[in-house]
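In the design runs reported in the main text, the only information available to the sequence generator was the tokenized backbone. The following block is the verbatim input for one such run; it is reproduced so that readers can re-run the procedure and compare outputs position by position.
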């Protein structure tokens, strides 16, 4: 029973770590997209 409880704690910690990593990657992707859009030349009218 204790092994299972420890395994649950380990998996929960891993989930939190992966969620934080995913959030950081998502933020980085949004920043890169925003930067690319700002660097574009305006369209000719």
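Verbatim output:
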């Amino acid at each position: 029973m204790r092994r299972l409880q420890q395994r649950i704690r380990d998996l929960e910690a891993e989930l939190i770590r992966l969620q934080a990593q995913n959030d950081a990657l998502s933020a980085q992707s949004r920043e890169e997209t925003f930067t690319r859009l700002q660097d574009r030349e305006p369209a000719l009218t």
